[in-house]
Design a protein that fits this description.
By secondary structure, the chain is mainly α. It has 3 helices and no strands.
């Protein structure tokens, strides 16, 4: 979700050339935050699975710039 859904949403809205950069950033941020929420649930239900923690960190680093 955090990686691909934003790309699909932008394409659904007409593509990168038609969607303003600030709107694109908001879309990427929204889906990244949803993805992180899913990872947080996974960490809670698995007792801190290191693979999930690493994936969450990677998603935050790549998709959330601040």
């Amino acid at each position: 979700m955090g990686y691909d859904f934003a790309h699909w949403e932008i394409r659904r809205r007409g593509g990168y050339a038609k969607v303003a950069p600030d709107i694109q950033e908001g879309i990427f941020r929204r889906y990244a935050q949803l993805g992180l929420a899913i990872f947080e649930d996974g960490v809670e239900h698995t007792g801190g699975n290191s693979g999930i923690l690493i994936s969450a960190g990677q998603l935050a680093e790549i998709k959330l710039k601040d």
